[in-house]
Each structure stands twice: as structure tokens, then as C-alpha cells.
Design goal:
Radius of gyration: 27 Å
Largest sheet: 2 strands, parallel
Number of helices: 10
Distance between the termini: 56 Å
Helix content: 25-40%
Number of strands: 6
Length: 250
């Protein structure tokens, strides 16, 4: 039902494809194809002839329309003008760098940044905004954390659980083997003796380091997640960790 109320096949066989397509567009009869994580597939294998057919100038009803025969069914096939294709991708994903150039040329790109307005709990939105500012500073804008983690958050305990189970593991992936950058994002570096630090010095590992005579990095600091994190199971304790990250908690 792509061209007006007709099937694609009947539209292809029609001599007035151009008027049928234009009528469908004028009457807002569109079909939508959404392809999630479009950058992860083998583009040439998935799209095949569609790489050419999806071009606006080669759609059905255009001056340079293309109609092909499908390799298995031998039926005629073309892409109608009133088909909209939306592909999604995560720009933090390294595979974006390998996105097929031919595919890039056929799509318009729109950046979707974190929507802080979608977060109902004000302190959650404020905290995420501050964390993302620090991520942009230490990494780049493409690695900002999206708002979806915090949409259902209703209190500080919810924020804390999201931080512990979602945000910190993600930061550890972003800054692999560089805990100091994670500490800067969580503001642990501002409060060395704070009981609300997310990371604390690993004293046992530091002592073990001293017993290694062939290791010369005496200034190295080794950190571990604060064991007190597992005790923050009420609103008051959770609020302490949330306030720790915020520049202006109130």
C-alpha cells in the first residue's frame, strides 16, 4: 500500500506512476522503514541494489527511475517516492567510522543530543548535564550519556542506583585503565577525604606495589570502588553521593 491505496506491484506496472506517486505524497500517504543500528550491518550485503534504488532521483515516478528484477522471484521491484527510510546509529560506536560512503551520501544526518527536559526529577537532569559537560571536556560530545537512564528516576536513591549500575560501568568502558578521569567526572578529585568518594585508594594494592623492587613508578595511585557504595540503600545516604557530584546541590 505504498502508492496511495494501491500495491507496489500495481504501481510499477502502471503507466502513470509519476502521477500516482505525486498523489500519494500530496495526500500524506507515506510508508516508514526504520533501521536500527544501521552502521553495524554489512551495508553492501544488506542493501544490494537498494543502494542505487533509494536515491531520490531513482525512485518510482521520478525522471530517472530505476526498476530491477529481484534475483529469486524475478519480480519487478522499485522504491516508491513516498517511502521514508530512517536509520539510527550511536556516534560513540567505533563502527561509525567504517560506515559505507555510498550510504552516507544517500542520507541526511540529524544529531540527537541528550534531552534533559525529558527527565522529570530535576536533580537527575542537573546531575546528568554536569556529567556530560565533563565528558565533553575529557573525551568528546559523541560519548555523552543519554537521558534514557534517568527518565524513570523519582528520587536520589534512584539516581544513585543508575549511577552505580549503569553510568559508572559505562565510564569505565570509556576511560579504560584511566580511573583518574572517571574520578574527575565524579568529582572525587575535589574531595580527597570525603566519605562519599566513589573511588578510594586501594591501600592493599599500594602496599603490594612497594614490595615490587623492579617497579619504579613510586607515584602511581591505585584506586578501587568505595565499599560504602553497597551500604547506600536509603535516600539519605544516596543523597550524599548525589550531592558529591553536583557543583551546587541545592
Amino acid at each position: 500500500m505504498l502508492a496511495g491505496y494501491e500495491s507496489l506491484g500495481s504501481c510499477i506496472d502502471s503507466d502513470d506512476r509519476e502521477s500516482k506517486m505525486q498523489d500519494a505524497i500530496n495526500n500524506n500517504r507515506f510508508a516508514l522503514l526504520c533501521i536500527d543500528e544501521i552502521n553495524r550491518a554489512n551495508v553492501s550485503a544488506v542493501f544490494g541494489d537498494l543502494i542505487s534504488l533509494i536515491e531520490p532521483s531513482k525512485r518510482l515516478g521520478t525522471e530517472h527511475e530505476m526498476i530491477v528484477y529481484l534475483p529469486y522471484s524475478k519480480e519487478k521491484f522499485g522504491v516508491p517516492r513516498n517511502l521514508k527510510i530512517v536509520g539510527t546509529m550511536n556516534t560513540a560506536d567505533r563502527s561509525i567510522q567504517l560506515l559505507d560512503t555510498a550510504l552516507r551520501r544517500r542520507f541526511k544526518f540529524k544529531e540527537l543530543l541528550p534531552d534533559y527536559g525529558a527527565i522529570k526529577y530535576e536533580r537527575a537532569g542537573k546531575l546528568l548535564k554536569e556529567i556530560n559537560a565533563r565528558i565533553r571536556c575529557l573525551l568528546d560530545k559523541d560519548h555523552q550519556i543519554g537521558h534514557s537512564y534517568f527518565i524513570g528516576v523519582e528520587n536520589d536513591l534512584d539516581i544513585f542506583n543508575v549511577l552505580l549500575k549503569c553510568v559508572i560501568p559505562l565510564l569505565e568502558e570509556y576511560f579504560y585503565d584511566d580511573v583518574n578521569k572517571i574520578r574527575q567526572i565524579l568529582k572525587d578529585n575535589d574531595k580527597k577525604d570525603s566519605e562519599y568518594n566513589f573511588y578510594i585508594e586501594d591501600s592493599e594494592a599500594q602496599e603490594a606495589l612497594k614490595s615490587m623492587p623492579d617497579y619504579f613508578d613510586d607515584d602511581k595511585k591505585i584506586y578501587m570502588l568505595n565499599p560504602k557504595l553497597s551500604d547506600a540503600n536509603d535516600e539519605q545516604k544516596a543523597a550524599g553521593f548525589v550531592n558529591h557530584i553536583l557543583w551546587h546541590p541545592k
